[in-house]
Amino acid sequence: xxxxxxxxxxxxxxxxxxxxxxxxxxxxxxxxxxxxxxxxxxxxxxxxxxxxxxxxxxxxxxxxxxxxxxxxxxxxxxxxxxx
Amino acid sequence: xxxxxxxxxxxxxxxxxxxxxxxxxxxxxxxxxxxxxxxxxxxxxxxxxxxxxxxxxxxxxxxxxxxxxxxxxxxxxxxxxxxxxxxxxxxxxxxxxxxxxxxxxxxxxxxxxxxxxxxxxxxxxxxxxxxxxxxxxxxxxxxxxxxxxxxxxxxxxxxxxxxxxxxxxxxxxxxxxxxxxxxxxxxxxxxxxxxxxxxxxxxxxxxxxxxxxxxxxxxxxxxxxxxxxxxxxxxxxxxxxxxxxxxxxxxxxxxxxxxxxxxxxxxxxxxxxxxxxxxxxxxxxxxxxxxxxxxxxxxxxxxxxxxxxxxxxxxxxxxxxxxxxxxxxxxxxxxxxxxxxxxxxxxxxxxxxxxxxxxxxxxxxxxxxxxxxxxxxxxxxxxxxxxxxxxxxxxxxxxxxxxxxxxxxxxxxxxxxxxxxxxxxxxxxxxxxxxxxxxxxxxxxxxxxxxxxxxxxxxxxxxxxxxxxxxxxxxxxxxxxxxxxxxxxxxxxxxxxxxxxxxxxxxxxxxxxxxxxxxxxxxxxxxxxxxxxxxxxxxxxxxxxxxxxxxxxxxxxxxxxxxxxxxxxxxxxxxxxxxxxxxxxxxxxxxxxxxxxxxxxxxxxxxxxxxxxxxxxxxxxxxxxxxxxxxxxxxxxxxxxxxxxxxxxxxxxxxxxxxxxxxxxxxxxxxxxxxxxxxxxxxxxxxxxxxxxxxxxxxxxxxxxxxxxxxxxxxxxxxxxxxxxxxxxxxxxxxxxxxxxxxxxxxxxxxxxxxxxxxxxxxxxxxxxxxxxxxxxxxxxxxxxxxxxxxxxxxxxxxxxxxxxxxxxxxxxxxxxxxxxxxxxxxxxxxxxxxxxxxxxxxxxxxxxxxxxxxxxxxxxxxxxxxxxxxxxxxxxxxxxxxxxxxxxxxxxxxxxxxxxxxxxxxxxxxxxxxxxxxxxxxxxxxxxxxxxxxxxxxxxxxxxxxxxxxxxxxxxxxxxxxxxxxxxxxxxxxxxxxxxxxxxxxxxxxxxxxxxxxxxxxxxxxxxxxxxxxxxxxxxxxxxxxxxxxxxxxxxxxxxxxxxxxxxxxxxxxxxxxxxxxxxxxxxxxxxxxxxxxxxxxxxxxxxxxxxxxxxxxxxxxxxxxxxxxxxxxxxxxxxxxxxxxxxxxxxxxxxxxxxxxxxxxxxxxxxxxxxxxxxxxxxxxxxxxxxxxxxxxxxxxxxxxxxxxxxxxxxxxxxxxxxxxxxxxx
Lengths: 83, 1212
What we know:
The complex is a heterodimer of chains A (83) and B (1212). By secondary structure, chain A is an all-alpha fold. Chain A has a domain of 47 residues. In chain A, helix 2 packs across helix 3 and helix 3 packs across helix 4. The longest helix of chain A has 18 residues. Chain A is elongated and about 60 Å long. Chain B has 1212 residues and is mostly beta strands. Among the domains of chain B are: 180 residues, Methylamine Dehydrogenase, Chain H (7 Propeller); 103 residues, no CATH class; 99 residues, DNA polymerase, domain 1 (Orthogonal Bundle). Chain B is built from eleven helices and 91 strands. In chain B, the strands form 22 sheets. Chain B has a five-stranded mixed beta sheet. In chain B, strands 10, 11, 12, 13 and 14 form a five-stranded antiparallel beta sheet that branches. Chain B starts with 8 loop residues before the first strand and ends with a helix. Classes of the chains: A mainly alpha (83), B mainly beta (1212).
């Protein structure tokens, strides 16, 4: 039992530390949001990728960057909670 | 790393990326002089602006083998030297200093804080340093923030604390700056959004109510912790912050810039807000709001409170923003802000960073295109621009206000002094030899919008011509000489003709002189200024020694013999007679030439001789090099004890045509080394090290210059001794100013027959040469750039280009999104209601095109890069169509006539990808391709992203479909079709009936076309999703390509699958073959994989140097040009692999990234050795070199030779 508790605690610590670490009850919404946010952060963080997208969109890099960081609801509204 | 791979490549960078991610300014050398440090790709580069010449010189470029995310400069209080903080993908914070004495970066601290890689919650995206250098904050896009305290210890060394956390989960950071608070506790300001509630609220109300806040983080130095000190809501659209000077200089606080507004905010001040002026013009949408995308704050010297901001909008317009403060009774500014003022300053290209130098220059690191270096003419203080003040604008962003407008105008305040070539973004690249030179040229299309260019790259140094004049006859040789030893400049130019000699004096004008004492009736072999004030002329019949008082001493050659070769220096003369004897002279103490008693007889006819310069403090050069027609070079001693004795001999592949002994800077010994340069009749150039004591020759390096015999001359360029090597074209051998390695680069100049050093008042370091009947005087200004660029301006962002199959013309397709097409523009300009008498059209290169959402402007250009160097024809596309693909296709049904085929899309939206239709246009070539004529267009469902000529027909990728079209009278006729990829076809390659199709997301597919059945059948695909950007077929089975995440890979079809696909009549069998795991029946094998960091946009199998081996050249978006050289033998692979391993540990990357993991960023590196790392060997300190050499069981020189050989054999 102690082992199980410890594993649970470790998982929780991991989840707190690394955003996006999943758990048994991860919903589709959480999972896809995380992937989208990770993607956007990666586009912003890799300079050539940001340039590539800026050229494609016909905008300047800073505007595209600001758009990408705006990853508040990357996959739309959260689903209704059903009890 | 899988060492079992059967294929190995050596990756080298030919041109490092030219895009600048960030540029910072500081006094990195610890002197008053300011330098600019830029981060481009994985490189950290230090530039030295030269205010007197208005130029920027690159002093040092260091590859950190990691992705540089942000850099910042800081200075500890009381120090006068700036350090650099780097955040990279290493998960570590790095502090480096520039050591000017050694010209290198030295790492001071490396602190690990998190995982490596560029991730959402790993700090490093944002970096801010307290202006007093006491602390820095690094932040990730979401949640994490770390504060490091910077201090100094008792030894005045920089110390860094362990990090203090300031995390806040579910918070996004848009911008981060440090506040200027003087010596109070350091404060950092962040622009944040908390999305926690919106993620929980299914109604979407929380999302609607999300606010953006400005948050102050205070580092309490006493308590050593960080607190969120203050937070306030700001404009929802704000994206960028700027620091406002504080302490004694100003009110402190920040400028928060959002859509159409700039707001001053501080915790103890009122908010002040001004709108961003919009452009007024007939083609401008008056409703379009601008945002600030870049900016810089500058404090003026002297007056307290004198500072201003230059903020740039997305159109490139710079606005000068100033803050007016409340004045006290004495008229001194208090710390209280009264209003914010903004006015139009000038327009410059959109920047990633702006740097204002104290010397009155502005460096603009452009996000795309050339970087610009401007000089301030004035600061826009008393001009006629309207100044807008914050009194007229409400503080609340939701309240209405009247927008403000300005008229853009040509620059008044800034004048451009230098435009620094940048190929960023490089959209496509091809290697071709259109000029029929020895080596091919690289053609590329670069840039965006109106600043787009077509660039021709050639390996060579830029030469500036000073004089070109025709002579009465064809001279065979030319020399220059000064009159006395202490002269600085040359006095005479001596020209030798087949039957005479002409002496010209150098002065205001160059004119013939006759009373010089030179023999004018014979040709000349050598000229030298001897001793204090003597002159020497060697002619076939003897040696004339002309003394200062015009007395002439003549030494005559023995009867029936003539002089065939001669060499001189300021104290010695050696001549070779037609009989093969060598006569040696040395200058006496009284200044006369004394013949050495014995003559030395050589085995064959002497073809060339060389004496080195007399070393400083010596009386003679110790060695004489003698080249004979039996293909040998001998080194003879000139020591008084052993005069003309043999020291060493070297056998050659062909008789030597020219020799030159000279001391040059050397990277392996660190100092200067004596070299013997040998030019052969076969056009080969050799460079060997000549041992200064024993006269032994060692470490020979060979290079083929051209088909003509090589002639060598000692010249002086940029203060260093260099060798001018002449063959079919001129080359210069010099040591690179940055790396100190030996470089041999062709000059961009016609082939010369003879060259000599030239120095006069007008041109202190020049060269004089003979080309046919012309005398040419020229100089070389820059040794740092060995790739010459020529550019032709284009209209819009170029997307792709093709070459005419036979003639030297290129066809580019250009298109720009959100830009008004010329037709719309004209319509607007013609409409009197809109124009309102205001129809000035400003040059688009500086001001950009008028923008409009959803509009496309696109054109096709015909380019002549060789003779006329301009756009010959331009065809604008109409109806909101934009070109996406281009190909030249020869149609079998039209007697193999070649047509230009262009794919377009109508009303395209980039994301999510939609369009109303696609078209394939067909154009006919006229006048050998100088002109194109529209024939017809065919409507297709989607824009065809890939086109290719295939077996006399057209192959088109339309969406997921691969189609074969034939040319009809009215339109294209579909002949075959198959759905072959899961997403979208973006590229096509072919050999035989095999087609390589690249999918936008799912790597490549190999398709076989069965002519009998008229079927397109995929037979092999890949296991990894690769977002393919470019591909090329290396051979029938192998494909090399790159993807959008910056990987390079080589894939090979299994031999069995390849054979099966090509079997006669196997069509039915292939169609019914069972698919493997829902894909094609077979899978491709990965042969090699590498992460070069930049996104490959083009890849091509080619050779780059005359007589060089084939290699793969790839071109990256940021302007990188790289090559992959295949290894031939296993032995070399083992050697370089071990060397790479040693360098990884001995020269660990500066920013703390593990080299192997960096090159394995997405997929483990396979079969590729990093040449850029191997080349760092030459930069190591000698002891480390020795150590590695010991481990490898080779000498240092041997290793350096191997490293330089592999590069020179295939590239520059």
